[in-house]
Amino acid sequence: MEQETILILDFGGQYKQLIARRVRECQVYSEILPHTTPIAELRARAPKGIILTGGPNSVYDPASPTCSAELFSLGVPVLGICYGAQLMAHVLGGQVAPAMTSEYGGTALFIDGNDSPLLTDVPEETTCWMSHTDRITSAPSGFTVTAHTPDCPIAAMEDRTRDLYAVQFHPEVVHTPEGATMLRRFVRQICGCQGTWQMSSFVEEQVQALRQRIGTKRVLLALSGGVDSSVTAALLSRAIGQQLTCVFVDHGLLRKNEGQQVKAIFGLEGDFDLNFVGVDARDRFFTALKGVVDPEQKRKIIGEQFIHTFEETANQLGEMDLFAQGTIYPDVVESGAGSDGAVIKSHHNVGGLPKGIRFEGIVEPLRTLFKDEVRELGLELGLPRALVYRQPFPGPGLGVRIAGEVTPEKVRMVQEADAIFQEELQRFGIDTGSGQFFAALTNMRSVGVMGDHRTYDYAVALRAVLTSDYMTATAARLPYDLLDACMTRIVNTVPGVNRVLYDLTSKPPATIELE
Ligand code: XMP
Question: What pTM does this model have?
Answer without folding.
Answer: 0.78
